[in-house]
Amino acid sequence: MVKIRSEKISLFLLSVPGIALLAIFVLGSFGWAICISFTDQTLLGEASLHTQFIGLKNWGKLFTDPLFRNSLSFTFIFTMGSAVIGQSLLGLALATLLQQKFLGKNILFVTVFIAWVIPEMVAAYMWNSLFSYQYGFLNSILQAMGFASRSWLFDSPLISVIIANIWRGTAFSLMLMSAAIETIPRDYYEAAKMDGASNWQEFRWITLPLITFAIILNILLVIIQTIPVFTLVFALTGGGPSFKTELASIYIYRTSFRYLELASGCAASLFLTIICVLFTSLYFRLQRRTS
Amino acid sequence: MLRRHFFHKIPLYIGVVITTLVFLIPFIWLFTSAVSRGAGLAVEIRDFTLANFIDVLGEKEITSWVANSLIITVTTSVLGMFIGTMMGYSLSRLSFRGKRGVMLLILLTRTIPGVGMIVPVYNLCLFFGMIDTIFGIILVEMAFSIPFCVWMAKEFFDNMPRDFEEAAKVDGCNVWGRFFLIALPIMGPGVAVITIFIFVAVWGDFLIPFILLRSTTKFPLAVGLYKVAFLEYGAVKYGSLSALAILYAVVPVIIFLFLKKYLMKGMAMVLK
Question: Is ipTM over 0.85?
Answer without folding.
Answer: yes
